[in-house]
Amino acid sequence: MTSKDSESADRPSETTVLPQPPAHKGTITKSGIILGPDGKPCRSCNSYRDMANMSALLTGGKAKSTALSKVTSPPPSERTDCPPDVEQLGRSTWTLLHSLSATYPESPTPSQKSDMKSFLSILSRVYPCWVCAEDFSSWMKQPSNSPQLDNQEDFGRWMCKAHNEVNKKLGKPEFDCNFWKERWKDGWKDGRCD
Ligand SMILES: Cc1cc2nc3c(=O)[nH]c(=O)nc-3n(C[C@H](O)[C@H](O)[C@H](O)COP(=O)(O)OP(=O)(O)OC[C@H]3O[C@@H](n4cnc5c(N)ncnc54)[C@H](O)[C@@H]3O)c2cc1C
């Protein structure tokens, strides 16, 4: 066995990585606050803003010392090191995901394709916002949405389509995927990223 053979033997083949349900689940309260598996408000599933609004509604504007109010106040403006809410986590994750597509090979090897397919499958199970993970996982499972990994352009456009799916769900404007490379790889033609 060559070192290349043993390397590929250690890797999961494309067919062995089956989509699984997200690893951690919780529930959604009637008031719309997403709880984690521990029954507490899930910080990475809600925005600080939504949790603060909900807390104000529940307490009639007065803060109470409950599990909810402990995570519902927006982070004090003087702090920049608070745990991420669903929006901060999302922005950071999209930055990673689009940057992965921007540096994906033009002609990937079978094992590079397999690695990326595994990564996306695992991400859709372990993403800390469990509702986001569930939706992302079921979207990817549809045959027309399976990751396009034959080359960098296909992957960049697939990632843009995946992100637009979430944008649509959240009522945000869709991004024009013709510009994915300017946004995430080359910089805009106006030179302001140089
Ligand atoms: C896999 C995944 C699933 C998510 N699911 C949910 C969810 O179910 N509920 C929820 O509340 N939040 C979810 N989020 C978070 C959500 O997508 C946003 O990240 C968050 O709301 C912050 O949005 P934003 O407006 O700051 O910009 P983001 O949507 O985070 O985008 C960051 C930047 O990417 C660029 N961009 C936008 N769209 C595209 C695109 N299609 N292609 C290329 N570049 C683009 C823009 O320049 C934008 O400023 C999810 C995030 C991820 C990674």
Automatic annotation (TrEMBL):
Region described as Disordered: spans on this chain: 1-32, 62-85
Report one GO cellular component: mitochondrial intermembrane space
The answer, when asked if Ribonucleoprotein is one of the entry's keywords, is no
Q: What is its EC number?
A: 1.8.3.2
Superkingdom of this entry's organism? Eukaryota
Q: Basic and acidic residues composition bias: which ranges?
A: 1-13
Location in the cell reads: Mitochondrion intermembrane space
EC class of the enzyme, as a word? oxidoreductase
Which positions, given as ranges, span the membrane? none
Q: Name one GO molecular function term.
A: flavin adenine dinucleotide binding
The record's section on Pfam families has: Evr1_Alr
ERV/ALR sulfhydryl oxidase domain span = 82-184
Cofactors named for this entry: FAD
Q: Which UniProt keywords apply?
A: Disulfide bond, FAD, Flavoprotein, Mitochondrion, Oxidoreductase
This chain belongs to the protein called Sulfhydryl oxidase
